[in-house]
Each structure stands twice: as structure tokens, then as C-alpha cells.
Design brief:
The chain is α+β, with helices and mostly antiparallel strands. The protein has a 5-stranded parallel β-sheet. A 5-stranded antiparallel β-sheet has the order 10-42-40-39-34. It has a 5-stranded antiparallel β-sheet with strand order 16-17-18-19-33, with no helix packed on it. Helix 7 runs antiparallel to helix 8 (159-190), helix 32 (729-747) runs antiparallel to helix 34 and helix 34 crosses helix 36. The model is unreliable at 220-238, 268-274, 1242-1285, 1294-1300 and 1389-1424 (pLDDT under 50).
Length: 1424
């Protein structure tokens, strides 16, 4: 009773906090809270929001529907005040109203509610228990009434009187039934304390969820201090959204356990047993709680330590999500340029003092420091940041300085938001409220990318500034922001927050600040910095006079004053004048003349032109360095390392042997000197490919703007030689693209970049050997794209060299292949879209003197290359990212192109089955498997074909319900069994067998989901037996003819018994197969179409046993073992018998369900013992189905691609999808299940007579059978069982010439055929035989190898088609599998000779029993 009282008090407290919190909100929020007392009313109130809320309403509708059964169960088992539910729905409505202006966060909120709905929808099962009790009592009443009436009828009472008696008895008994039902429900509730606790926990979790969201969206408006106090008290508890979902998952598992007990409690025969177990479980739980309290203090200390570590881990994750740029380096760089004794005037300015110190109740909380280009705004901003940090160390100072002279990072508003948010997070590491705001944003990501989107950081910065105390935000160079209007609009919302102090530094041209930002004080630099400029010039002149650069008659003080007047408040002008005067190319008289010019202000353009004339006086070498540096800095796609720029400036006609002689000993300083001070090396470091460097840059944004303007005005009243000024935009990009193409054509070797086939090149070595290769490979297409965007129709002289370079580049296959390899080495996908666009659009714009035939050929090749690159990325992207060198091997073999070379040592042969001969059948199978025969000369195809009627109808959009309603669509399906010769792809035998209509229809009704259906098929290794859906087939040759027989498995998969009201009575009844409709299947009755029943049939290699494995959501997986009996007296007869059955949970509890279920386990038969090995996420087990004992053998895995026993049976090999295989020993596990004699019946690789595909009588090659569909056909495959066993499969034990035994495997690991040799469970040697493109079925293709008898023969790698779990009902493309890859042994150039020698070994037979290979558990090593 005390526990119930405390739980009820907890519920009241939670809802009370939520209601009291709502009372602090404005009236419009409280009105919505009072109106929305149910989920349906919440949805009704959201209708007025319009179409943009369609997705939100859908998600909330899912949540509301899931909550209805929850509150129904809550009312029965908890019996609390209805106000609790009303509080929850009203709180949800208020939360939605608070967050309606934050689009991204609202999207995350509704998405999180949909996720929670998926975790609580199971409460419908709790209501089913109540319905079962009701049905049980109703049935008892009907039975009693019927029995009593029958008794009265036997006594001769009239019908009219019987009807009156029936009505009276029903009325009396219903009253008793309700009382009995109420009593039994009370007893059920009293015996389920854990269920009550779970229901309370779920409700409190939902309330805490809403309180946590309040902490994000609610900002107190200051109406009353009482509201703030209530708010702080209501949301004191730290809240984490990822923990909420995790706890919901935990509650789901607890509910499912309680449901099992509830279902047993309402069963009379197990009632006492179940109640005893429940009491025992409760007692054990109490003992465990007592033990936990004993160690409470220790756990508290551990939790405190873990909490601290979790905070720092969260900080690291949050920074990765924000992905800020190196903002601090830019600030430090600007601060380093501040001359000693300067910038102090700003800190004494009255406006600044009032802004920074909050004196005299100063109302203007935002400051705008504006000045012309070159007035020193950035240095002032850096000085303000340092001054604020020194004078107010406890107040956060966050900043960002835009910089258009670099192109390493984006120069937009989101870059600033990321930097500001990273600093806010650093200052607020112990602020739980702010941390939860970041957790919410990170966990429920709408876009799903690794880093935050621009919209997300924009909304997050707006929410964060409302949650922090007094903070300074300093932003510099807003005029250089690429999306300035968007930035100003966001700053307008930030500026109204009373605790935020904003400072802007930018040009006066940003007039939007004065118009949009409230409470803004403007401070114009003007001539306020004259004293700073004069001090800087005085020191520089005194230094030059001391060094002898100036005459002794020079008066530094007077000269500095003159130059200060000419600077007119532009610090940059003074800096450039000093650089100009220090130039060693000037005579002292020229310096004196520059100083003595007119004593009036002059603009920066005059200074820039003066410096350019100085550059003209240099030699050709200096001109080349200056013009080239200007060109790359103006139009380059990114900042370049000094070594990259040096390589790019080497003339194209210089041979590789002469390249070293064109490098300068002090390149960095030489470039700065050649550029006359326009260029400098940034103090800010940039990281590229793991290496840091100081990039070149223009000294100021105005320099870049000057050159951009000069390129437009070339030839118009300019006194500067055009070869120094960079060309126009499109001409500049054409020149840079030409430089890149020439480098790739003549500098980068046209061969595998590692120097050998099959070996991947090192990124560091390539970049060191060819410094310009990274930029040239990744950016030449970008310059082509820039030409399209900047093309104005004018002819440019740089166009013809570009065409010539592009023509040479496209005409050399090896050069193209080296470029593709290099792109993937550098981690980038070759850009194809700009190639296609340039090949069409730019060529059509061209009116140059390039011959039209040359233009057309270049256009054609560029388009072909672009299309090929798209196909290359689609088919081979993942492989190329892991191993770029395969562009020289499998890639060009599987995906050839006339532009590239083809590998001479690799050939591909696709094997396709013949089309069915029966009319009315579609041409592409809905499911297909293939298998190589023992000797590797033939393929067996097993294909299932639908009728054309089914195929045509399945293409309609409304196909699902009609395919289930109308059984005629399930008619006419066939299975085709075909033998195909590998050498010439000739069909030597086939069977076409009609499939039972009822079986097909049942499968469609049970599994048709999202345009796919499950059609299970399987086949034994010797191809004697195969299964299709639920029928077993046996194929054999008798008297030279191929015959088959079939047997329907005796599995109870179709619903036949139902419960309903018949003639006024509730009773069970049965339906015949003909009477069934699709609505009789449980997935339609339960209104849960995703709960399909999947099954698979596994056959052992001897054709003695099969396993019928079923899987359904929320139920354990079941394995049923059937013994197969074949009678061959006068007629072929096939029978099965159920001999064993086992169930197990195959799903990991923490893994959520998807739209369609996939196979959650794998299994295989032991080669000769009554053993089944099955594996799932947690473990691998051995099941002896003769003794019905199981034992754990080893680890399991998620998403298992393959599981197989070795042919000696001593181990199994487990292959996770896309990962390395694992050898699992079976000795100890088999012994634990009762196996004593583990000796194999024969040698490994030996084929027993009972396992042959053909009878001895059929050992003669016959002609291809006539086009007939009879059940008996001639079979001509005698050579299939002749000769020794040459193939290697997934897990085989072979005998080496020295008599040792080797466990080898050929596996498909992540679309890669890998040949492994194992010893002690560890991979000793491995060899990649072939990779597969990203084709449909490539992941599941079964791999085997036909070994050559000597090295002159090729290795044949066979990829067989595996059965699909889900088959598309329409738009089916022809499968590329099976296929055979023939590869010359000499093509494995990167592998060791040991591997090659081992691969060509032939199996030899030895007398006596084989040696047993000893294994130990453990992970496999990396591939050699």
C-alpha cells in the first residue's frame, strides 16, 4: 500500500509540475492547454496550420493512435485521475505552440514523438488480454444459456416461452458476468504489480519528456518573478532525449515479459504455476534491490566520475557535429599585426566605454564600429576581443572574423554560427539546460548528415542566446560575408536579447545594420586613428633612416605627419607605403620623391598602381612569379601550399628531368618580394591531408577587389602591362584548367601510381613526389565549370590551349586511369556532372578558331567520360574508396570503356538460364538460385516465374489489395529446373513444373509488402532435392530419363480455425482453403501489415533432413527438422516426418524494426551428424536434434551473410556481411550435446556414390530435349560426376602434397571473393581473387573456385545467385548472376609466391582417416 501511495504521489507531482509551469505562460498558451484534453483534440487544433504542417500532423497522428491503447491499459491497471491524461495532451499542445517558429527543432520534436510511438504501440496487447477475459466470460454465458434452453426444450416447453426465458437469463447472467469480470480484473491487477509500475514509469517518462522540451522552447518573458521560480523548480531534473528512447525500449521489454505472464494467468491449467513464478520473481527482485542498496555509496562515486567523463565526451561529440573552422587563428593573426601603442583610442571612446561597462543605465546594447577599407577594423576587433577578456574574465566573449582573402572555408553565416556555438558550448560546459539543448539538436537530426546543417545551426544560435547570461558577441568584416542579408536577419533576432552585447566591425556600406539592428550605437573611425598611423610611420621611418635607406637630412617626425595626412585614416595605405619604401629596387632619390609628392590624401588605388609599376621594373622571372601568384590567388579553388604553387608556376614545356632546376631555394620569401607586398603568408595555419601549412594570401580584401576590377578594365586607360594583371574570369579559369591538365598529362606517370599492379599507392608518397597532383586532380573540372558560369560569348586566347590540353588528356587511356586512381587516393569522387555540362554547353558557346571537328570529338569524349564516371561510382565507388588501384584490374574488366584500357588477364562470362517455353509466363524470374556442380562444368538453375497476368497487374499503383483478393493472379506460376553447360552456355536438360495455386496465393497474402513478396527456394549441394515455397521436390534419373516427385510439407501455416458469432452464438468454426480470404490472415486481422511471417527451408547435403525455419515480429524464431524418406520401388515416392523442433529469440533487443523484416539468423547442417548450427546477433549454437540438446559454440554477429560447416565437420565459418569471416570450433559444443563419435565417414573432398546427381545408367551424353513440359526428360550430364573433386567452396578441408590438412575457404566478403587458409582459427594467408561491382545480388552471391591443374590455366571464380528474401513483384531486371571470372594467375602481381603456389595445389587422396584440425576461438587477423 505504501508503494502504491508513493507511486500515486509521484504521478501527481509530475503532472502538477507541468500544470504549474503552464500557468506561468501567457493567456493564449493556457487557453490551448485547457482546450486540448485528448489527443484527437490536439490534432483538431493543428488543422488550422495548413499544408506545411502535413508531415507534423502525420507523425503526431501516429503518436496519438499509439497512446490510445496505453491510456486504456493505464485506466485499468493504474486507475488514476483522468486529469493526468488531460495534462499530458494539453502540455503537448503547448510545447508545439512554443516551438512553432523553429522549423528544424519542431521537425526533430515530432520525429522524436514518432519514434516514441513505435516503442509504446505494443500496449494494444495489454488491451487484448482484457478482451480475452471478456470473450471467455461471454462464451461461458452462451454455453450455460444454450445448455439450460436445451434442457427446457427437452422438457417440452414452447418456443415462445423459451425466447422469453433466454432474454431473462441473458440479462441476469450479464450482470453476474460483469461482476465476475470486474473481480477477475481486480485479481489480475492485484497480481501484476510490476505491470502497474511499468505503466507509471512510462507515463512519468512522457511527462519528463515534455518538461525537457519546455527547457528548450520556453524563454521567460519577465512578467513575474514567481513564473521564473516555478519554471526553474519544475525542470530541475537533467533531461536527455537519447536516454528517453532507451528507457522506452527497456519498458517495452518489461511489458512483453509481463504480457507472457498475463496470458498464462488467464489460462486455468497454468494459473497456479504462473502466480508462483511471478511471486518468486518479485521476491528475487526485492533481494536484488537490498543488495544494490549496500553498494549505493560506491556506485554514487562511480556515477559522479562517469558524469564528468560523459560531459567531456559530449563536448567532443558536439564539436564534431558543429564542425567549426579555425576561428581563433584568424583572431590571433589580426592581433599580431597590431603595432605597440595603438588602438588605445577606441577603449577611451565614451560610446565604447558605456557599451562595454554598462554604465549610466546605457540603453544601446549594440555597437557598430565602421570604417573605410584599410582603416584597421580587423585589428581593432582583435584588440577589443583581447581587452574584453582581460577586463571581464568571467563574462563570455565569443567572436568570428570573416575573411574573403581565403577560400579554405565557406565565408557565409553558417560558418560564423558554428564558431560562435562552439565557444558558447565551451563557456557553458556545466550548464545542464544548454547541454540538453545541444543533445536534442544532435540526437533527433532531420537531415541525417554527420555535421549540423546550415538551418540547424541558425536556429540553434537563436535558442542558445536566450539561454545564456551576459555575453559579448564580436563580428568583424560583415561586408565580406557571402549571405549578408540572411546574417543580418538572424542578428536582428539576437540583438533583442537583453543579456547579449553585440559589436560589429565593417564598412559603412552595410547600411542594413542601422536599419535592422535595434539599440545600435554607431562609431565611425574616420581620422580617429591618425595618432596610431603617425606612430607607426614614425617608427618605420626612423628604422629605415638607421638602415641607410633614407638620407640623413630626412626629418622622421615631419615626414610621418605628411604621410599621415596623405593616408587619410587608412592604415593599409601606411603599411603599403612602408613596404614600397623598403623595396631594394628603389634608389634613395626615388624614395625621397615618393615622400615629397603632393601633400593631400590619395586613395588606395594610387598606391596599388605605384606598387605595380615597381613590379614592372623587375625581370621576366619576377613577372612570372608575380603574375602567376596573382592568378592562382584570385581564381584558385582553394588555398595552395607553397610547394603546390611552386610546381604550378613551372612552365609546361619544362621536362620532368629539368623540373628540379626550376625550384627556388627560398621560394616563399621570393614570391612575397616579387609581388611587391601585395601577397603575404598567413599566420593562420591550414590543414590539408593531415599536414599544416601557412598559405599565401592577399594582404587585404581591398587588394583582391582591386585586381578583380582591373581584370574587367584591361586595356581601358590602364598604364599597367596586361601580363601582370590577371586575365578576365573565364580566361583565368581556362588558363588554370590548362595548367592542371598539362600537369596530369606530362608530370604524373601514366601507370598505376604505386608502380605495380594490384598495389595501392600511399597518399603521402604521391603528394610528396608530385606536389601539384592533389590540386590538379581534384580541381581541373571545377575550373571548367567556372568557365560555363562566367562565359559571356567572347572569344579568349586561352581557349585554344585548353582544347589542345583536353584533347591530349582524353586521348590517353593510361592518363585517365591514373587520374581516376588519384582522385580516389585523395578521397574524392571524380566530378562527372561538370564534364557532361561543359561538353554540351560550353562547346556550344564557343566561337573560337578551334576546328569544328576537333570541338565535336572533344565534346563527345568529355560526355562519354562524364557518363562513365557516373557508372563507375555507382558500380565501384565503395571498392575504389578502399582500394583505388583496382581501376587497373577488375573495374575495367567488369565495366569497360573505350576511353580506358582493358585488363588482358581477366575475362567475365555471364551465365543466363533459358526463357520458359510455356506460354503466358513472364520472361524474368521472380526468384532464382544457381549452383555449380562438383566438377565445375555445369550449372543448375532453379527459377520461379510468375504468370504474365500477375506481372502486368503488379505494375499498377493499387496492386497490393487486388493481388491478395483475386486468386487468379496466383495461377500459372512455374518453377524451371535447368542444367547449363559452363563452357558454351548450352542447355542440356530442363524441367518446367507448375506451382500449386493455393501455395502461391498464401505466400502473397502472408508477405506482400511494399511491392515485394517472399518466395522461399533452396537446393541441395548435389541438386537432387530442391524446395519452392512449401513443397519439396526430388529429381532423379531412372532408365536414362529425368523424373521428379513432389511432397507438400506438413506445416500448419494457413489459418483454418476461427472464433465468431454464428446463429447468435460465439463459437469456433473452420474454413476450407477455398473459403479463405486474404482478411483471414493474422497480419490483416491485427491491422499490422508489417508483421509478416517469413520462412526459409534449409536442406542438408545428403538429402536426409530439412529444416523449416519461421520468423515473425515479436515472436521467437522456430526451427522444425523433418526427415526425408525416398521410396524408389516401382514409382518415385517422397515423404517427410517431423522429428525435432526448437524455438529461440533471434533478434537483438536494442535493434529497431525497419519497414521490412530481414533474416535475423543463419543456420546450416553438419555434413554427417544430426547437428544443426545456428547463429544470430549474440551467439552461435550447436543443436543436436537427435537428443534435443544445445550448446553455445562461439560468438554471433549482426547481419550474417553466410554460415557453413567444413566438410570434415570440425568447425564452421561465420561471415558477417561486409566483414572478415570467423572460424568457430565445434568439438566441445558437439560433445556437450551428446556426440561421442565425431569421425567423418570418408575423406575430405571424396564424393560418395549416394551423393551423385546422376544414376550410373545416365552416364551417356544425350541430345538437348525437345520443347516439352512433361514430367520425365532425358538427362545428359554424365561428366558431372566423373573425375576428381576440383572445386573449392565456402569451407573445405584439403590435403596438401606433404600430407598436411588445410582448412581453406572461398567467401564473398563485402562483394569480394577472398581465398583464405586457416590454422588454429586464424587466417594464415589470404588472397583477393576478384571483386564485384555494386550489382543487385552481389552481396549475397555464393562463391566457389575451379582450380587449375597447372599455372598456365586460368583460375575460374564462380559467383552463384543466392535466393532473395524479398523479391520485387514488378520492374524486375535480369540478374547478372551467376557469372564466371577467369583470371590469369600471373595477374596476381601483388600477392606472394606462397599464395600463388598454394592456390594451384591439387587435392590428393590418402588412405586412412583424415587428421583432425585443432582450432581455438579467436578473431581473424588482418588479410596479408
Amino acid at each position: 500500500m505504501q508503494s502504491d501511495h508513493s507511486a500515486s504521489t509521484s504521478l501527481d507531482n509530475s503532472t502538477g509540475k507541468l500544470r504549474s509551469l503552464v500557468e506561468t505562460l501567457p493567456d493564449e498558451y493556457q487557453e490551448e492547454f485547457m482546450k486540448c484534453t485528448t489527443g484527437d483534440k490536439v490534432l483538431e487544433r493543428l488543422q488550422e496550420y495548413g499544408a506545411e504542417w502535413r508531415t507534423h500532423r502525420r507523425r503526431l497522428g501516429v503518436f496519438v493512435q499509439s497512446m490510445k491503447p496505453f491510456f486504456a491499459a493505464f485506466d485499468i491497471f493504474v486507475q488514476c485521475d483522468p486529469i493526468h491524461a488531460a495534462t499530458l495532451w494539453g502540455g503537448l499542445r503547448v510545447v508545439l505552440q512554443l516551438g512553432e517558429n523553429f522549423v528544424q527543432f519542431l521537425d526533430k520534436l515530432t520525429s522524436s514523438l514518432e519514434k516514441i510511438a513505435g516503442e509504446i504501440k505494443y500496449f494494444i496487447d495489454v488491451n487484448d488480454v482484457v478482451n480475452k477475459l471478456n470473450d471467455k466470460h461471454q462464451k461461458e454465458i452462451e454455453n450455460k444459456i444454450n445448455a439450460e434452453l436445451q434442457k427446457k426444450m427437452d422438457e417440452g416447453i414452447e418456443t415462445a416461452m423459451l425466447e422469453e426465458m433466454q432474454k431473462k437469463m441473458k440479462k441476469e447472467m450479464r450482470a453476474g458476468m460483469h461482476e465476475a469480470l470486474r473481480a477477475e480484473l481486480e485479481q489480475l491487477v492485484a497480481s501484476s504489480p510490476r505491470l502497474q509500475k511499468v505503466l507509471r514509469d512510462v507515463f512519468e517518462e512522457l511527462v519528463q519528456y515534455l518538461l525537457g522540451v519546455f527547457r528548450i522552447f520556453y524563454h521567460p518573458d519577465g512578467r513575474s518573478k514567481n513564473g521564473l521560480r516555478v519554471f526553474a523548480k519544475a525542470v530541475w531534473k537533467p533531461f536527455r532525449f537519447d536516454d528517453t528512447l532507451a528507457r522506452m525500449t527497456e519498458y517495452r521489454e518489461r511489458i512483453l515479459q509481463e504480457m507472457t505472464l498475463l496470458n498464462l494467468k488467464i489460462s486455468n491449467d497454468t494459473k497456479n504455476l504462473v502466480e508462483a513464478r511471478a511471486a518468486q520473481a518479485l521476491e528475487e527482485s526485492e533481494r536484488a534491490n537490498a543488495k544494490n542498496e549496500k553498494f549505493g555509496s560506491s556506485l554514487d562515486r562511480l556515477e559522479a566520475t562517469a558524469e564528468r567523463e560523459a560531459k567531456y565526451t559530449f563536448m567532443h561529440r558536439a564539436r564534431e557535429w558543429l564542425d567549426p573552422s579555425s576561428f581563433a587563428d584568424r583572431c590571433d593573426d589580426a592581433a599580431s599585426q597590431c603595432a605597440p601603442g595603438t588602438t588605445g583610442w577606441l577603449f577611451e571612446y565614451p560610446y565604447y566605454v558605456a557599451w562595454s561597462r554598462d554604465k549610466y543605465d546605457y540603453q544601446k546594447q549594440n555597437l557598430w564600429v565602421r570604417g573605410n577599407p584599410g582603416s584597421g577594423k580587423t585589428v581593432l576587433a582583435a584588440s577589443v576581443i583581447q581587452e574584453l577578456k582581460q577586463n571581464e574574465p568571467h563574462t563570455p566573449v565569443c567572436y568570428y572574423l570573416f575573411n574573403s582573402t581565403q577560400n579554405t572555408v565557406a565565408n557565409d553565416s553558417s560558418t560564423a554560427y558554428r564558431a560562435l556555438l562552439s565557444q558558447i558550448l565551451q563557456y557553458s560546459i556545466h550548464d545542464d539546460r544548454l547541454n540538453e539543448l545541444f543533445r536534442f539538436a544532435m540526437y533527433f537530426q532531420s537531415v541525417g548528415q554527420r555535421t549540423a546543417s546550415k538551418r540547424e545551426v541558425g536556429e540553434l544560435i537563436e535558442l542558445c542566446v536566450r539561454s545564456i547570461g551576459k555575453t559579448y558577441l564580436v563580428l568583424d568584416a560583415l561586408d565580406e560575408c557571402d549571405d549578408l542579408p540572411e546574417l543580418v536577419a538572424k542578428l536582428q533576432k539576437v540583438a533583442v536579447v537583453q543579456t547579449i552585447r553585440l559589436a560589429f566591425f565593417c564598412r559603412p556600406t552595410v547600411t542594413a545594420l542601422a536599419r535592422e539592428i535595434p539599440n545600435l550605437e554607431t562609431l565611425t573611425i574616420g581620422l580617429s586613428n591618425n595618432e596610431d598611423i603617425n606612430l607607426y610611420l614614425l617608427r618605420a621611418l626612423e628604422e629605415m633612416k638607421a638602415e641607410g635607406l633614407m638620407t640623413t637630412k630626412l626629418d622622421p617626425e615631419e615626414t610621418s605627419k605628411t604621410l599621415t595626412r596623405r593616408a587619410d585614416g587608412m592604415f593599409l595605405w601606411a603599411r603599403l607605403m612602408v613596404t614600397y619604401l623598403k623595396s631594394p629596387a628603389l634608389y634613395p632619390a626615388e624614395r625621397q620623391k615618393a615622400i615629397s609628392e603632393l601633400d593631400h590624401p590619395e586613395g588606395l588605388d594610387v598606391m596599388y598602381e605605384r606598387i605595380l609599376h615597381l613590379i614592372e621594373r623587375g625581370g621576366k622571372a619576377m613577372h612570372r612569379l608575380a603574375s602567376g601568384s596573382f592568378l592562382w590567388l584570385l581564381y584558385g579553388e582553394r588555398s595552395m601550399t607553397p610547394s603546390e604553387l611552386e610546381s604550378a608556376l613551372i612552365p609546361a614545356d619544362i621536362g620532368p628531368d629539368e623540373e628540379e632546376s626550376w625550384k627556388l631555394p627560398d621560394f616563399e620569401n621570393t614570391v612575397i618580394h616579387a609581388c611587391g607586398g601585395f601577397v603575404e603568408q598567413s599566420h593562420q595555419t591550414v590543414e590539408l591531408l593531415g599536414k599544416k601549412f601557412h598559405p599565401f594570401r592577399f594582404i587585404h580584401a581591398s587588394v583582391k577587389e582591386y585586381f578583380a576590377a582591373q581584370t574587367i578594365q584591361q586595356g581601358l586607360d590602364s598604364t599597367i602591362e596586361n601580363h601582370i594583371i590577371p586575365p578576365r574570369l573565364n580566361a583565368g579559369h581556362a588558363y588554370l584548367a590548362t595548367v592542371c591538365l598539362n600537369y596530369l598529362t606530362y608530370r604524373v606517370p601514366a601507370q598505376p601510381l604505386s608502380g605495380a599492379l594490384g598495389k595501392d599507392a600511399s597518399l603521402e608518397r604521391i603528394w610528396l613526389a608530385f606536389p601539384f597532383s592533389n590540386y590538379a586532380m581534384l580541381n581541373w573540372t571545377s575550373h571548367l565549370e567556372a568557365m560555363i558560369q562566367s562565359h559571356n560569348g567572347d572569344t579568349i586566347r586561352e581557349e585554344k590551349p585548353l582544347y589542345s590540353a583536353l584533347e591530349r588528356f582524353l586521348a590517353q587511356p593510361k592518363v585517365l586511369m591514373a587520374w581516376i586512381e588519384g582522385c580516389y587516393i585523395y578521397g574524392k569522387i571524380p566530378r562527372s556532372s561538370c564534364l557532361r555540362e561543359w561538353g554540351v554547353r560550353y562547346v556550344s558557346f564557343s566561337n573560337s578558331a578551334v576546328p569544328s571537328t576537333q570541338v565535336g570529338e572533344i565534346q563527345k569524349r568529355a560526355s562519354e567520360l562524364g557518363q562513365y564516371l557516373d557508372k563507375l561510382e555507382c558500380d565501384w565507388g565503395q571498392h575504389l574508396q578502399k582500394s583505388p588501384a583496382i581501376i587497373w584490374e577488375e573495374v575495367v574488366a567488369f565495366t569497360p570503356s573505350p576511353l580506358l584500357l582493358k585488363h588482358a588477364g581477366i575475362s567475365i562470362q555471364e551465365l543466363q538460364p533459358s526463357s520458359p517455353l510455356k506460354s503466358g509466363i513472364c520472361q524474368e524470374p521472380i526468384n532464382l538460385i544457381s549452383q555449380l556442380t562438383h566438377e565445375g562444368s555445369h550449372h543448375i538453375f532453379l527459377s520461379v516465374y510468375t504468370s504474365k497476368l500477375f506481372e502486368c497487374h503488379s505494375k499498377r499503383s493499387d496492386t497490393a489489395q487486388q493481388l491478395c483478393e483475386d486468386r487468379s493472379f496466383s495461377k500459372g506460376w512455374i518453377v524451371r529446373y535447368e542444367i547449363l553447360r559452363v563452357s558454351d552456355q548450352r542447355s542440356v536438360a530442363y524441367l518446367e513444373i507448375p506451382l500449386p495455386e493455393f501455395e502461391v496465393w498464401v505466400r502473397v497474402c502472408e508477405t506482400l509488402l511494399r511491392g515485394s513478396v517472399q518466395i522461399p527456394i533452396s537446393m541441395t549441394q548435389d541438386c537432387h532435392f530442391f524446395t519452392v515455397i512449401g513443397t519439396l521436390y526430388h529429381v532423379k534419373t531412372i532408365a536414362g530419363r529425368l523424373v521428379y516427385t513432389s511432397h507438400c510439407l506438413p506445416v500448419d501455416s494457413v489459418p483454418c480455425e476461427f472464433w465468431g458469432k454464428i446463429s447468435g452464438k460465439f463459437q469456433s468454426y473452420k474454413k476450407t482453403p477455398a473459403e479463405l480470404t486474404y482478411k483471414d490472415f493474422c497480419r490483416f486481422r491485427d491491422d499490422d501489415l508489417k508483421r509478416v511471417r517469413l520462412y526459409w527451408i534449409h536442406l542438408d547435403d545428403r538429402g536426409e533432413n530439412l529444416c523449416y525455419a519461421t520468423q515473425k515480429r515479436s515472436l521467437p524464431t522456430t526451427l522444425q527438422i523433418y526427415r526425408i524418406s525416398v521410396s524408389t520401388n516401382e514409382t518415385l515416392k517422397l515423404e517427410t516426418e517431423l522429428i525435432a523442433e526448437r524455438s529461440f529469440w533471434s533478434r537483438d533487443i536494442g535493434k529497431p524494426y525497419g519497414d521490412r523484416d530481414c533474416k535475423e539468423f543463419e543456420m546450416c547442417f553438419h555434413p554427417y551428424l544430426p547437428i544443426v548450427v545456428y547463429a544470430w546477433a549474440k551467439a552461435t549454437y550447436v543443436w543436436n536434434f537427435a537428443t534435443d540438446k544445445i550448446s553455445k559454440a562461439g560468438q554471433g554477429s549482426h547481419d550474417i551473410a553466410f554460415l557453413a560447416c567444413s566438410n570434415t565437420g570440425d568447425s564452421c565459418i561465420l561471415t558477417p556481411r561486409g566483414s572478415r569471416p570467423i572460424i568457430i570450433p565445434l568439438f566441445l559444443a558437439m560433445r556437450a550435446t551428446g556426440i561421442s563419435d565425431m569421425g567423418p565417414p570418408g575423406m575430405p573432398g571424396k564424393i560418395e556414390a549416394g551423393h551423385t546427381i546422376l544414376d550410373q545408367e545416365s552416364a551417356v551424353v544425350a541430345k538437348v530435349p525437345e520443347r516439352s513440359v512433361a514430367a520425365a526428360k532425358p538427362w545428359t550430364l554424365a561428366q558431372a560426376i566423373l573425375g576428381e573433386h576440383k572445386t573449392l567452396t565456402s569451407s573445405t578441408v584439403t590435403v596438401a602434397p606433404d600430407g598436411s590438412f588445410n582448412h581453406v575457404s572461398v567467401l564473398n566478403v563485402g562483394r569480394t571473393a577472398v581465398f583464405n587458409r586457416w590454422h588454429n582459427g586464424i587466417c594464415d594467408e589470404s588472397l583477393i581473387l576478384s571483386r564485384l561491382p555494386n550489382w543487385a545480388g552481389a552481396e549475397s552471391a555464393k562463391t566457389s573456385v575451379i582450380r587449375p591443374s597447372h599455372e598456365s590455366e586460368p583460375i575460374k571464380v564462380v559467383f552463384d545467385k543466392s535466393a532473395d528474401t524479398w523479391s520485387k513483384v514488378s520492374s524486375r531486371a535480369a540478374s547478372a548472376f551467376p557469372l564466371v571470372v577467369e583470371r590469369d594467375i600471373r595477374s596476381f602481381t601483388s600477392q606472394s609466391s606462397t599464395n600463388l603456389q598454394f592456390l594451384s595445389l591439387r587435392d590428393t587422396s590418402r588412405s586412412g582417416a583424415p587428421q583432425q584440425i585443432q582450432h581455438t576461438s579467436g578473431e581473424t587477423r588482418d588479410e596479408d
